[in-house]
Amino acid sequence: QVQLVETGGGYVQTGGSLRLSCEASGRTFSPTTMGWFRQAPGKEREFVAVHTSSDRTTFYADSVKGRFTISRDNAKNTVYLQMNSLKPEDTAVYYCAGHPNRIALGSRRTASVYSYWGQGTQVTVSS
Question: In this model, does residue 31 exceed pLDDT 90?
Answer without folding.
Answer: no
